[in-house]
Write a structure and sequence with these properties.
This protein is an alpha+beta fold and 494 residues long. The chain folds into three domains: 143 residues, no CATH class; 148 residues, DNA methylase specificity domains (Adenine-n6-DNA-methyltransferase TaqI, Chain A, domain 2), CATH 3.90.220.20; 145 residues, Adenine-n6-DNA-methyltransferase TaqI, Chain A, domain 2 (Alpha-Beta Complex). Helices cover 40% and strands 16% of the residues. It has 15 helices and 23 strands. A five-stranded mixed beta sheet has the order 3-5-4-9-6. Helix 9 runs antiparallel to helix 15. The longest helix has 44 residues.
Length: 494
Amino acid sequence: MREGNFNRVERAERVEKGLGVSSQELESGEVIAHAKSAKFAKSDVGNVLIQRHKGTGSWPMVRLGDVCETLTDGDWIESKDQSYEGIRLIQTGNVGDGRFLKKENRARYISLDTFQRLKCTEIFPGDVLVSRLPEPVGRACIVEDIGLRMITAVDCSIIRFTKDVYAKYFVMFSQSPKYQESISFLVTGTTRARISRKNLSSIQIPLPPIKMQEEIVERLEKELGEADKVAAEFKRIAELADEEFKAELDEMFGGLGNGELGTGSGNDSNRVERAEHVEKGLGVSSQELVLAAKNAKVAEDWPMVRLGDVCEVARGGSPRPIKQYITDDLNGLNWIKIGDVDAGGKYIEKTSEKIKLSGLCKTRKVNAGEFLLSNSMSFGRPYILKIDGCIHDGWLVLRGFESVLEENFFYYLLRSRLVQEQFELYAHGSTVRNLNTKSVEEVQISLPSISVQKEIVAKLDAAKERCEKLKAEAERGLRASENLRKAILSEVFE
């Protein structure tokens, strides 16, 4: 297995170019030390402006509602009112903390007829939107021109200021700790925090002369731009760490499109026969399967086997209506849901809910040491069970593999491109794609000896540890850059 030299060199060169940090410093964990150096020096924005104006203490404080020509909420748009084209619906997810997020791949629309029927409020480029929902509550951005007419959702407030307020100034202020602290005192809601439009309008904002607002924005854009640039590099470091580990998996197990996938027997006729058999149940063409089979890559001395030949694959089930089976009884059965695990996690160690023992006959019992595989929506995510429990039909359980597959090797194998691309090929469904028991049984996996599996696990564990260490350093750098951002804003809006 390669040591990832190319990716490490690429990562080092990219970071060195953006941060001025050497690859040696990067590998030795001195990235954070660099983050605290010149580029993280104390901002001069606050020094300049505070010396001239003694901070916000010398600026009048005004109610937000008193300096708005318009302060109103967006429109209540239900799913049934939405369409595939027309007038763009801007939602809370489009309101970033100081940035307008276009998210064109998640765009929602309403028709002109619906716009007129519901008497919607149109929004325009230059308007300010404030999200009254987390995260964080009260974040604001300026609407950008997307070349379409727009409206916004009811949980966004629309603001158009009087001539006394520079919109960009307010958006800068909305990112400050002072503003967020004010918002926190006015938030309501036990399950989901929110701020009412009435409470939002009562927020006090410092109001220097309009020329000073423009100068503050100009200087803050420069200072915060530097901090954001460094933060972006740290994010890229974290991404490169993930990419490097994926490359380690690819190098070890290969993937579709990189060579030759065995079939146990090694002849094309068996591949065609199996492909045609699966085609009947899955709607996947035999040509696609044969092409995939011919184009995958594994080590020549590792035999290839069907997953269904080395383990049992079974689907979960759910007692219905599930609400009648949920219990607070500590002796209840662990009810394992997708929400109980992280997307990139490895183990399932606890659940948020339990079901009554009477539900056992209508679900599937699973045990510690077995594998669960998500089979719907975000399909193909493997997890190792650390607890006993029960699963609904959004899970598949893989069991009975212990004699031929080492646990951690099996986990890495299921996450590899070799297997994930087969999941992608086999997944079916027009709206929600999913995997079924039969399709997972047909997946081809590489099967070296147990001793070789343990050697592979040791190498991949070492690669994983190296990448996780780098990600931890990058996350520390991100926190440092975020603290710098807060410090810069606090110096101005103290």
